[in-house]
Design goal:
The protein is of the alpha+beta class and 280 residues long. The protein has one domain (36-257, 264-274): C8orf32 fold, CATH 3.10.620. Helix content is 36%, strand content 16%. The protein has 8 helices and 9 strands. It has helices at residues 8-22, 35-41, 60-84, 92-105, 109-123, 129-133, 142-148, 153-166, and strands at residues 53-54, 125-126, 150-151, 174-181, 186-195, 198-202, 210-211, 218-225, 228-232. The chain has a 7-stranded antiparallel beta sheet. A two-stranded parallel ribbon has the order 2-3. A hairpin with a 2-residue loop joins strand 5 and strand 6. Helix 5 (109-123) packs across helix 8 (153-166). The protein is globular. The two termini are 30 Å apart. Residues 1-44 and 236-280 have low confidence and may be disordered.
Length: 280
C-alpha cells in the first residue's frame, strides 16, 4: 500500500534515512537463513534457558516465520516513510507503533525493555485467531496487529521483537521463544531480551518481566532470532535441578528420551497448538 504521493527521489531519501535507523533489511530477510549462519549458531548454549538449539530443516515454525518476514519487508518501508515525515504519515498504526518505540528509546537498560513490554501489552487485547480471522494459527506483523488492536500470544511477541530492535536493542540480544506450558497443557509465545548477560521474558500475560532462571512450568520448544527459527534439544532432568520444569543443556543432536516433551508431540508442522483461546 502506498502511503505518500511524493516523487521517487524524495522517497529514496526517506527510505535511506529510515533504513539507517531501523537497520539493514538483511537482518530480518528470509535469505538470512544461510548455511554459514546456521552452522555458527548450531549447538550454542547462550540461548534463553541455557539450552542448546539447532536449525530445523523445515516444518511449520520456519514456514510461519518466513511469511512474517515477507510482511515485515513491506512494513519497514511504511515505517521508514513515517519516520521521515510523520505529519504526512497516512498510517495511524505506524504512528502508534513509532510512539511506543520513541518512548522506549528515551529510556535505558531494563526500563527500555519494560516500556516496550508494558506499552504493547496495553495496546493489544487478547483475541483468538478463529474469532479474529476465522482461521487457526495466523501470525501477524505489527502493522496488521495494531489497526485491529487485538491478537494472540505470538502477535504480542512479534510486535515486541520488532519494537525492541527498532528501539536500539541489538538483534543478538533478542528472541521469540515458543514454549509448552506444562500446567495448562498448552503452548505459548513470548519475546525475550538479554540484558547484562541475563534473559528476560516479555510476556503478554504479565507486566513484570521474569528472568529465565525463575521461569517454572514451561518447556521451551523453539527460539527465533534475526536469522530464523532454532529448535531446542532435550535430555532428562537432573536431580540437582529441583523445581525446574525445563531441561538442562545437552549436546546437539542428542536423542530425545522416551516420555519427555518433544516438539513433535505437539504438531509443530501444523502449529494448531499456538492458537488461542488457551494462551490469551
Amino acid at each position: 500500500m502506498r502511503i505518500f504521493g511524493h516523487s521517487h527521489a524524495w522517497r529514496a531519501v526517506v527510505l535511506a534515512c529510515g533504513i539507517a535507523w531501523f537497520g539493514p533489511p538483511t537482518e530480518l530477510a528470509a535469505g538470512a537463513l544461510d548455511a554459514t549462519g546456521s552452522s555458527e549458531r548450531a549447538g550454542r548454549s547462550t540461548e534463553p534457558f541455557g539450552l542448546f538449539a539447532s536449525t530445523p530443516s523445515g516444518g511449520g515454525v520456519r514456514a510461519k516465520w518466513l511469511g512474517v518476514e515477507r510482511k515485515l519487508d513491506d512494513e519497514r518501508v511504511q515505517l521508514a516513510l513515517c519516520v521521515g515525515d510523520r505529519e504526512r504519515c497516512a498510517s495511524p498504526a505506524a504512528l502508534e507503533f513509532l510512539a511506543i518505540v520513541d518512548n522506549a528509546r528515551a529510556r535505558e537498560g531494563r526500563a527500555r525493555l519494560g516500556e516496550i513490554n508494558r506499552a504493547i501489552n496495553l495496546a493489544i487485547r487478547p483475541m483468538s485467531d478463529p474469532a479474529q480471522y476465522g482461521a487457526l494459527d495466523v501470525w501477524s506483523s505489527p502493522l496488521v496487529t495494531f489497526p485491529r488492536g487485538a491478537g494472540d500470544c505470538e502477535d504480542y511477541a512479534i510486535a515486541k521483537f520488532i519494537a525492541l530492535r527498532q528501539a536500539g536493542v541489538s538483534p543478538d540480544d533478542l528472541r521469540i521463544v515458543i514454549m509448552r506450558d506444562t500446567i495448562r497443557d498448552e503452548n505459548h509465545a513470548v519475546a525475550a531480551a538479554r540484558l547484562d548477560g541475563r534473559w528476560l521474558m516479555l510476556d503478554n500475560r504479565r507486566m513484570a518481566m521474569v528472568d529465565d532462571t525463575h521461569v517454572r512450568n514451561y518447556r521451551p520448544l523453539f527460539s527465533i532470532d534475526q536469522y530464523g527459527p532454532m529448535q531446542y534439544v532435550y535430555e532428562p532432568l537432573r536431580a540437582e535441578q529441583p523445581g525446574r520444569d525445563i531441561a538442562p543443556s545437552v549436546a546437539p543432536n542428542s536423542p530425545v528420551q522416551s516420555g519427555l516433551i518433544s516438539p513433535s508431540n505437539y504438531g509443530v508442522d501444523s502449529l494448531d497448538w499456538l492458537s488461542p483461546p488457551q494462551h490469551q
